[in-house]
What we know:
Oligomer: single chain
Mean pLDDT: 93
Strand order of the largest sheet: 2-7-1-8-9-10
Distance between the termini: 31 Å
Order of helices and strands: HEHEHHEEEEEHHHEHHHEE
Shape: globular
Structural class: alpha/beta
Low-confidence stretches: none
Number of helices: 10
Number of strands: 10
Amino acid sequence: MGFDHTSLNEAQRTRIYHYYLPVFLWCKRKLEQHQQSGAAGAMVLGISAPQGCGKSTLVEQLEALFLWCEVPAAAVSIDDFYLSFAQQSELSAAHPDNPLLKLRGNAGTHDLAMGSATLQALKGLVDESQSAKIPRYDKSAHGGRGDQAPSGSWPVLKGPLQILFFEGWMSGFSPLPEAEVAAVDPALVPVNRQLAGYKEAWDQWVDNWLVVRIEDPQWVFKWRLQAEEAMIKKGKAGMSEDGIRDFVARFIPAYTAYLPGLYKNGPTTATAGNTLTIEVDVNRSPVSGQSHQEQ
């Protein structure tokens, strides 16, 4: 498969043999079941995992493994479906005192219709005569405020497609009674209202779920700090520690409110046997001794 086992350190071996490969084999089994059931189109695997926990690397490994097995695979992120700069500006202006909707990230800052249309198009790539564009978002536009990239720059994926990885930090979150979210943070109330639309728009397309569990959402700050420090070492611009703290603070209320329900009940469209949960530690490695939990 193109790597030398003897050159791997202990952490790398742990991730490969106790994380990436077990998840891949589970996905492969679910894909076989999906195809044997006669279900139309590609199997969509929804991946719910906090920011910085290594989900991008996990998706890269899964996609590479399936392609190595000559199974057409692709990946999209909820980050591809943010509102345009103009739309986000309008949203921010409509909620001038709400820090959770001032910038992109939380529920309500995504283009649900664009995401739904993209998932439907990708799921429907059943033969080589078909193709679909994958939206892209330019996070560096407008001084870091971000904007949708011009559609002419979007990559085109040609069919057939057998498995699609759809990942996001808040994927599968279920809205809660307003009193509960208000107790976490009053600014979360309008976010919670927006969250109700994600199940029908996006989650209905998901066939199986992978949930990456963490013990403490505050680890997101540490992981973001590590990422920024790595960027600075490469000569790229990076956020200050205060800037990182402010950035992560916009997401902590949602983690606090919704992660307990996600871990207890599974994602919005979870059904018996279609969800795998794996817990990782602060070093992004699978927690030792855990049994991979299928719900």
